[in-house]
Every structure is written in structure tokens, then in C-alpha cells.
Write a structure and sequence with these properties.
Blueprint lengths: L1 H35 L6 H4 L2 H16 L5 H19 L2 H11 L11 H13 L2 E15 L6 E13 L4 E6 L5 H8 L3 E4 L2 E4 H12 L12 E7 L1 H13 L17 E5 L5 E2 L19 E11 L2 E4 L10 E2 L5 E4 L7 E3 L11 H5 L13 H11 L7
């Protein structure tokens, strides 16, 4: 009887520990299932859904190993919930706000300035503050509407959120007639080891890029680049060049790489002499594709679906870097996502863009406010599978 009693006392801690492990495991499994059923978490994270599930499972197992140490377990639980919070935020919407916030120039006047200020406030509401402005003065030019002469400026803005050192670099889109001429220029040029859209690479991107240094991005944990129209073209070019092992921008081996790319009605800048333009830095983890996506707006005209006229250049021998394509049709329709091919060098959705007619007019589809408003309206809808 004494031996039996002693044995029971010896086994009790083991039994209690096993019960805790089982409860702990099922708690996190249940919480994980609830979170998977939630509404949109941001398209930038939807693409990593399966990867995140594996990470969350691994995290839960790691937590089990610390269950005997109260302090270690508490720290691990906090880290788990912090990770969940990051995965639920709308990174695509934040990027859209940043792209709209870049339209704060005199050349646009009342067209977008108020919307740009509202977008800046939206960024501040989620923790971002403007850290650095890159400005290039281009001299006199005609305003976007062609009605008055203004001082032309190109700009890029770096927004940083201190609590997690996440940053968004946004490039301004076309705001003058001169910018429109550059975008419509069909010439190509050899620069940075690529065949590029001459008007964007030479006249818009290069002057801004020369103002940037590795120190501007030092200490950042995550870097997303974004832009609308011409700004989106500049964003795609910077993302590819910063992640190129050859370092064509000369920023140095310790430079921050680009983690995410968002282009809204973006100008394609890579010529089709390159079969595919990959994210070289992401080849080990993301199939050589950028997280994020190229976003296009569509509408139906006379029974035919047409896309943002900015995509016309895609049919003129230019393409985007390897990433996902996100189609936005209205405030009431959830975004449709076409994932980039996981196979290096294989084109996934370029043909689909070329087979879709472009709108006869630039507006209303190309309006940067559309991309923001449609993403805001759909943020409570289920994410695309």
C-alpha cells in the first residue's frame, strides 16, 4: 500500500504536466482555427497563409518546451500574440494609403491634395510617421490638367513605424504633363543591368535613386515599397535593384532588402527582352516572387470588362516583376488574387493581363482614390483563397 501510494505521488506531477500540454495544444489549435476564419488580413499576408500555419504550429510546439518555466512561457505567449496582430493588419491598405499620400504636390492642386492629407492621417493612425522625404526639383512644367504652369517636383517618402521598425517607401505618381510624356515614352534603355522603360528609368527614377543611401534604411526590420501609376513603376524598379546581388544602385552589401512590393495601376518598366524579372533575394523562401502584388482596377463597359488604361503598356512589350496580381472590381466585390508562379522563369498571369482590354479613358479607373476606397470597403470581406 505504501509503495502504491508513493508511486501515485511520483506520477502526479507527470500526469498534471501532460494534462497542461494537452489543454495548451488544443487551446492554440482552436485559436488558430478562429483566426483562419477571420476577415481579410491584408493581401500581403494572404499569400503566405500556408507558410504562416506551419510557423504557428512550430511556435506552439516551441511554447510547450517552456511550459515548466513560467517566465519563459509568458514571454513566448506574448510573442505569439504579437505575431498574430501583425498578420491581421491590412498591409495592402497601408501601402495604398502611402501611395495616395505621395500626391501632395502643388501641381495637382485640389485634385488629390485633400485625399493625400487624409491618407497621411490614416498612416499616422496606425503608427507610421514620415521619416525622410526625397525630393527632386524639375523646373517649370504644366500641371496635370494642363491649365497652369507649376514647379515640377518628383518625390518619394519613407514612412516608419517605430514600435516594430516597419517602413513603407512610397513614390509619387504623375502630377504634371511632363510626367505623362515620360510614361507614354515607348523607348527602352539599358540601365542597371536591365532593359527598361526609358522615360521612367532615366527621367523619373534615377534622379530620386541618387538621393538615397543605405543609411536611409538602416535599422529597419521590414521594408515595403509602393506607388501608384508612375510611382508604382519606380517602386517595382527599386525593389528589383535593391534585392539584386550585383547591387546596381551601389548601396553596399549591408543594405536593407525590400520585403514587400505594392503597385497600384503601376507603369510596367521591364522590357520583354527579359523573360522574367524575379526577386532574387526571395528565391530561397518565396519562389523568386515579391510578397505583395500588382493591383489593377476593372469595370464593365457595354458588357465587356476592361482594366485600368495604365496596363496598356503591358501589351507594348513591358512587364512587371514577379509577384501576385490583385484585381479590384468594386467596393462590393472581394479582391481576386492570381498568385505568381512558384517556378522560376515561368510566367503566370502576364497573358491574362494582355488578353483583357484596357479602358478607353484613363479615368475613372486610374484614380488612386479608387484603390484606397475599394480596399477600405473590402477589408471586412473574406480574403481570397
Amino acid at each position: 500500500y505504501m509503495l502504491s501510494t508513493c508511486s501515485s505521488w511520483l506520477c502526479a506531477p507527470f500526469i498534471i504536466a501532460m494534462l497542461c500540454i494537452v489543454c495548451f495544444f488544443f487551446f492554440f489549435q482552436a485559436e488558430d482555427g478562429i483566426r483562419d476564419a477571420q476577415e481579410s488580413r491584408g493581401l500581403g499576408d494572404v499569400y503566405k497563409r500556408q507558410y504562416q500555419r506551419r510557423v504557428r504550429g512550430t511556435t506552439a510546439l516551441n511554447m510547450l518546451s517552456t511550459i515548466s518555466f513560467h517566465r519563459g512561457m509568458t514571454a513566448t505567449v506574448r510573442a505569439f500574440h504579437a505575431s498574430a496582430s501583425r498578420s491581421q493588419e491590412r498591409r495592402d491598405l497601408h501601402a495604398a494609403w502611402a501611395s495616395l499620400a505621395a500626391y501632395d504636390s502643388e501641381a495637382l492642386g485640389g485634385m488629390l491634395n485633400k485625399a493625400a492629407e487624409d491618407a497621411k492621417q490614416s498612416l499616422r493612425n496606425v503608427g507610421y510617421e514620415l521619416a525622410t522625404s526625397f525630393i527632386v526639383d524639375g523646373g517649370p512644367a504644366m500641371s496635370f490638367d494642363g491649365k497652369r504652369e507649376v514647379m515640377e517636383t518628383d518625390a518619394a517618402y519613407l514612412w516608419v513605424r517605430e514600435r516594430d521598425r516597419r517602413a513603407i517607401l512610397s513614390f509619387r505618381g504623375s502630377d504634371t504633363q511632363q510626367d505623362l510624356e515620360h510614361v507614354r515614352d515607348p523607348r527602352r534603355v539599358s540601365m542597371y543591368g536591365h532593359e527598361l522603360h526609358a522615360g521612367v528609368a532615366e527621367d523619373e527614377f534615377e534622379p530620386l535613386a541618387t538621393k538615397m543611401s543605405a543609411a536611409d534604411f538602416g535599422g529597419l526590420k521590414e521594408l515595403a515599397v509602393t506607388g501608384h501609376s508612375l510611382g508604382g513603376g519606380c517602386a517595382t524598379l527599386l525593389a528589383v535593384l535593391m534585392n539584386d546581388p550585383a547591387d546596381p544602385l551601389g548601396l553596399g552589401p549591408d543594405r536593407k532588402m525590400v520585403d514587400e512590393l505594392y503597385g497600384f495601376g503601376a507603369t510596367p518598366v521591364f522590357h520583354d527582352l527579359e523573360k522574367e524579372t524575379p526577386n532574387v533575394y526571395g528565391c530561397q523562401t518565396n519562389g523568386c516572387a515579391f510578397r505583395g502584388g500588382i493591383f489593377r482596377a476593372l469595370r464593365t463597359v457595354d458588357g465587356v470588362e476592361v482594366q485600368d488604361a495604365a496596363f496598356r503598356l503591358v501589351s507594348e512589350n513591358f512587364h512587371y516583376p514577379k509577384t501576385s496580381l490583385v484585381s479590384l472590381r468594386s467596393k462590393s466585390t472581394k479582391p481576386e488574387v492570381r498568385l505568381s508562379s512558384r517556378i522560376k522563369g515561368k510566367v503566370s498571369w502576364r497573358t491574362a493581363i494582355r488578353q483583357t482590354p484596357t479602358d478607353d479613358t484613363l479615368f475613372p479607373l486610374h484614380n488612386p482614390k479608387n484603390y484606397v476606397n475599394w480596399l477600405v470597403a473590402t477589408q471586412k470581406k473574406s480574403s481570397p483563397k
